[in-house]
């Protein structure tokens, strides 16, 4: 299968892409004045987009990991970001709603990946 071959050949590349995405998300989440995004989407939509993307990358980067583990780790990342935003010197506001969106978006991202691309990417990895 082409998807499994791509995963084997570039697993380190997917993991590097995931690491870069996590670093970028954390930096943007902790900036006192994050850059404006074209179209001015809501904060909820930005959280959802970030964590769906992280879930998709996580699923490709670590195909042998369970979906529940990926969602749990991304939920922990979201919680860490919200805790950091609660610190006085950061200049951001922590929000339980943002964390809930992070968890939901992570679960949706993993489920969508498994439903649409799971066999191509995960079929051989789990064997």
Explain this structure.
This protein has 127 residues and is mainly alpha-helical. It has one domain (2-30, 41-122). The protein contains 4 helices and no strands. The relative contact order is 0.19.
Summary keywords:
127 residues; mainly alpha; 4 helices; 74% helix; transmembrane; membrane; transmembrane helix; VanZ-like domain-containing protein
Sequence stretches where pLDDT stays below 50 over 5 or more residues: none
Question: Number of DSSP helices?
Answer: 4
Rg, nearest Å: 16 Å
Number of strands: 0
- The class by helix and strand makeup works out as mainly alpha
Residue share in helix: over 70%
Largest sheet: none
- What would the principal axes of the Cα set say about the shape? elongated
Arithmetic mean pLDDT = 87
Approximately what portion of the residues adopt beta-strand conformation? under 5%
Order of H and E elements: HHHH
- What is the number of domains? 1
N→C terminal distance:
13 Å
């Amino acid at each position: 299968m082409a998807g499994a071959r791509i995963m084997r050949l570039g697993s380190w590349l997917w993991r590097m892409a995931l690491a870069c995405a996590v670093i970028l998300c954390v930096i943007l989440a902790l900036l006192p004045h994050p850059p404006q995004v074209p179209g001015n989407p809501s904060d909820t939509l930005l959280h959802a987009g970030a964590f769906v993307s992280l879930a998709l990358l996580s699923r490709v980067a670590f195909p042998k990991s369970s979906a529940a583990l990926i969602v749990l780790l991304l939920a922990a990342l979201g919680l860490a970001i919200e805790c950091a935003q609660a610190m006085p010197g950061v200049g951001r506001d922590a929000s339980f709603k943002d964390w809930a969106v992070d968890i939901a978006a992570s679960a949706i991202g993993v489920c969508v990946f498994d439903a649409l691309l799971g066999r191509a990417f995960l079929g051989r990895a789990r064997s």
